[in-house]
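Lab meeting, item 3. Inverse folding demo.
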């Protein structure tokens, strides 16, 4: 029997996080059969790490699954971990949760990462997967990195820096956003127009959707070889590298938004 958790996306992960308030559970491995997936087990774990006032950064590094983040009104870093062990003799993941100087670190690794990392397959399958639901307090900068996993950030007030390779990246928040993915879809929903640093959205082939806070003093510039869509009246201008650029301004134009894509489509929608 194939587990639905193999395709766990951030929305499903948060449903699990919010609905699961009991003790961690463990599922037995399924027997392998011809043409069937390898045996696997799923375990749910919850942990908290108290954060001292000296912490100015929260770093989440998970090359082995998805990450979903939301705000909590407590000085702690809370985690809900969905751990999948795959194979008859699964490799055990290491999920580190610690304070390193002024940074709270949540990191997922396997011992064999030095020999291929998240892309190393065992008999055609991933060696395991760890999906993270993370609860962060207001204040510290939030840094997130994944490879194939999705990222979902739900309306946090913190500044954020997010990097992923092919996972879908969706972020909503009041702080500064620095978001980049190679081929994944990128969606950004700023909930204010007051950022300490310019907003930066970047993809290679991934499409971009931005909800523009049009009532704010916005200076927007966007570049791509793909299409520009949405209700804005834009006049694309050719660039020397073959891409086209559009610009849009409102008010004093003090809040900068920069969108840079090689070939992804860019869709701009209004938010008032």
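The presenter then showed the designed sequence:
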């Amino acid at each position: 029997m194939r587990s639905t958790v193999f395709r766990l996306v951030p929305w499903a992960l948060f449903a699990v996080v919010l609905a699961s308030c009991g003790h961690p559970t463990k599922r037995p491995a399924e027997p392998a059969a011809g043409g069937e997936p390898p045996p696997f087990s799923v375990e749910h774990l919850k942990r908290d790490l108290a954060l001292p006032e000296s912490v100015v950064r929260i770093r989440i590094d998970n090359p082995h699954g998805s990450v979903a983040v939301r705000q909590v009104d407590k000085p702690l870093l809370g985690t809900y971990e969905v751990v999948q062990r795959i194979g008859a003799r699964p490799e055990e993941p290491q999920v580190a949760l610690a304070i390193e100087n002024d940074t709270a670190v949540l990191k997922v690794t396997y011992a064999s990462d030095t020999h291929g990392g998240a892309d190393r397959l065992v008999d055609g399958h991933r060696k395991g997967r760890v999906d993270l639901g993370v609860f962060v307090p207001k204040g510290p900068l939030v840094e997130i990195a994944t490879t194939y996993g999705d990222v979902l950030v739900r309306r946090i007030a913190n500044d954020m820096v997010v990097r992923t390779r092919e996972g879908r990246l969706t972020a909503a928040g009041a702080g500064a956003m620095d978001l980049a993915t190679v081929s994944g879809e990128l969606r950004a929903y700023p909930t204010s127009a007051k950022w300490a640093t310019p907003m930066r959205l970047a993809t290679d082939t991934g499409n971009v959707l931005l909800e523009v806070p049009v009532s704010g003093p916005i200076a927007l510039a966007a570049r791509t070889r793909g299409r520009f869509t949405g209700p804005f009246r834009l006049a694309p201008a050719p660039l020397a590298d073959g891409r086209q650029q559009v610009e849009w301004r409102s008010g004093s134009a003090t809040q900068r938004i920069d969108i840079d894509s090689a070939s992804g489509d860019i869709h701009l929608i209004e938010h008032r």
